[in-house]
Write a structure and sequence with these properties.
Elements lengths: L3 H9 L3 H8 L2 E7 L2 E11 L15 H27 L33 E5 L1 E2 L2 E5 L2 H10 L11 H7 L12 E3 L3 H6 L7 H18 L2 H6 L5 H14 L1 H12 L3 H17 L1 E4 L1
Helix pairs in contact: 7-9, 9-10
């Protein structure tokens, strides 16, 4: 049986994809209208992460969501207390006026699902104060990692291993971790017959991650469930799946306006671009 020291030495010798798999962090390549950059992304439970700080004057969507949840909980508590008083005789149920609280259904007091529960995995990027750090070369990315400069991934329990072991030759994103946001708008403008389904689906995935991690309210709202761009994403996934589902997915895509979709994505990419901090 290997000793703890031997296991540590084996871990220390990891490189390339094996290193990233061990630390549960992934190098990512994102092509933006302003160039192609490298960064890092990790998924952790929401309870393990402190959300990035932001310098924007806009209302923080996470704070707004929490305030709404607290307000709803307070309303439910008031309703419950009023019912308790009624059942204890402090209010005569026969004398209740219109608008007074009716008999509560226990299901009404069940917790509503949160957008990100403590046990749900959420994305975090190499970012600082709401800005995504993108590096034009693997060498500059590694130099930054080793510099000790502040960023949001320092809170990860495996970050020390990355800072100690990573080499520029390790920064080689897998195909699924390469995104071409610079091509999305032009591809959508080309019309339904030219839409690149994998390109657009991947763009939706990384845009959602960036919207959440960087607290970009316009991006979060534009891609929220039930939005036109979310409907587009679902139709793209159905079309990509093939079979009968793919047939109906392609039919739904035909009903989505190419101009509307391209304008919506142009706004999303503009918001993300504005939140990028390019590093040479």
């Amino acid at each position: 049986m290997a000793t703890q020291s031997e296991e540590s030495e084996a871990s220390a010798g990891l490189s390339g994809h094996a290193l990233w798999d061990e630390v549960r962090i992934t190098p990512v390549e994102i092509a933006m209208p302003g160039g192609v950059g490298l960064t890092l992304r990790a998924y952790r439970k929401a309870s393990e992460l402190t959300p990035t700080e932001t310098e924007s004057d806009d209302e923080d969507p996470f704070d707004a969501r929490e305030r709404a949840r607290v307000a709803a909980a307070e309303e439910e508590e008031e309703a419950f207390q009023a019912q308790v008083l009624a059942t204890e005789g402090e209010l005569d149920p026969a004398e209740k006026r219109d608008g007074d609280v009716e008999e509560p259904d226990p299901a009404d007091f069940e917790d509503e699902p949160e957008a990100a529960t403590d046990d749900e995995e959420v994305p975090a990027f190499l970012s600082h104060k709401g800005r995504l750090l993108l590096f034009k070369s693997a060498e500059s990315l590694v130099s930054f990692i080793r510099s000790g400069a502040p960023h949001d991934l320092t809170q990860l329990d495996t970050w020390a291993t990355v800072a100690e072991r990573v080499q520029s030759t390790d920064v080689d994103p897998r195909p699924d971790d390469r995104y071409e946001l610079d091509l999305v708008v032009e591809n959508l403008r080309g019309g339904h017959d030219t839409w690149d389904l994998p390109l657009l689906i991947a763009a939706g995935e990384v845009a959602r991650d960036l919207g959440y991690a960087l607290r970009l309210k316009p991006v979060i709202l534009a891609l929220s469930p039930g939005s036109p761009l979310d409907d587009l994403d679902e139709s793209l996934r159905s079309a990509e799946s093939g079979g009968m589902g793919g047939f109906f997915g392609r039919r739904r895509l035909r009903k989505i306006g190419a101009q509307q979709a391209s304008l919506g994505w142009r706004s999303i990419i503009g918001k993300i671009s504005a939140a990028v901090d390019w590093r040479d």
